[in-house]
Amino acid sequence: MKNLKLKSARAALDLSQQQLAERVGVSRQTISAIEKGDYNPTINLCISICKVLGKTLDELFWCE
What we know:
Layout: H1 4-12, H2 17-24, H3 28-36, H4 43-53, H5 57-61
């Protein structure tokens, strides 16, 4: 399942996939794969992404 919440939050801060990746210490391909739903990130990576984007785990990673 695509993570449109992550993509939207990243875009709202005008961050590229590369910029977000650098801030959380992963490759751009990892961010792309998370957004496409091809990769299930670790909880630690989820937390790092949330901190950079100023969002909670529920806001970015909880499926309704």
